[in-house]
Amino acid sequence: MNVTDTNNISYIDNTKVYLGAGFLAGAGALMFGVMPIFLSLIGGTFELTPQQVGDAAAAFNASFTGMSISALFWIRKIDWRATSLIGLLISIIGTGLFLAINSYLHLLSAMFLTGIGMGLLYSLSMTVLGDSERPQKAFAVKLGMETFPGAIVLFAAPVFILPKAGFTGFIGVMLMALLLLGFGALGIPKQDNTRRDLDKFYPAENSGNLLLILISVVISLTFFSGMMGSWAFLEFLGSDREISGSIIGATLSIGLIAMGLGGFLAAILSNKASQTIQFIIIATVHLVALAILAFVPGTAGFAAGSILFLFTVNYILSFTFGLTARLDKQGRFVALCGASLSGGAVLGPMVSGRLIESQGYTGMLTFSAICLIVAAFIFVTLSQLKASK
């Protein structure tokens, strides 16, 4: 939402709220950040096929998506700070259950419960920052912050955690990260007091504008489907090319840091040049990264392609989220941006898992490229349509 004529929401645009929402987003996005190593770990620990691994990821993301969609109906009616603590508790319980898995069904249940808790945290952070007067900048900062917890875990896992404590130690580190990130609850408002009179400023969305809002959400859904389709299996790709686990972990952690920096760069450049031009440039860089992963062999190709691929992600998402927030003047649908990520994370690994079995990793990377091209076409078209109004 972009409001400049009222003081109802100015309290969002301050460092305390940005940090609080960023920390909660980091907790909500933690599973996304560690997904490559986590999926590889459960695949090896529980002897799963690629399809089962993809379906396990889908279980997490299905509940994450359901929570994000349901937030449309209650997120502005409850105490935000108390809700963040509930989401944190559910996330911790769900993550802790991985220490007591004895069947594939139990594994799916743990993934599903963790998705509920993290989906709640992420939806809350999206809603809070969606009230910003500068939504693209707010989302860019959030996207940058939420990346670093996963990057730290990915860096530490193959070097310090897995050799000494294995899967149990990895889950323990995730639990500690959730506890620390939970302090973000102290930075967000206790309640949403900004929307009770908002209808005085903005009438209900007409069907035409509602359609544009939903299309803007589809942009994020399409892009993230392709992104997660490759991200979830990057560790598998590196292992298939006989790259050592420590190098893979270091590459992915550096890539996540690059992803965070990409979000901060997007915040800095948000008003410096045409958003359409910036989007086209960064989308082209994303395609180049996929080509490097597909056609440049060895450690150098894997490292360069992975880091460049991840650098572009938050940059692109800051534009797609910002577009939705600008169209959604009442802030009623911005939480769907979280659902678009989790929905994409459901579709991406499921599709890629099957493509890998039938066509190898080239099929996976081609799927990601197609998703980006489709998302870019819709973004440019919708941006031009909005500019013409």
Automatic annotation (TrEMBL):
The chain crosses the membrane at residues 17-44, 56-75, 82-101, 107-129, 141-161, 167-189, 210-234, 246-269, 276-296, 302-321, 333-351, 363-382. SUPFAM superfamilies: MFS general substrate transporter. InterPro entries: MFS (IPR011701), MFS_trans_sf (IPR036259). Keywords: Membrane, Transmembrane, Transmembrane helix. It comes from the Bacteria. It holds the Pfam family MFS_1. This is MFS transporter.
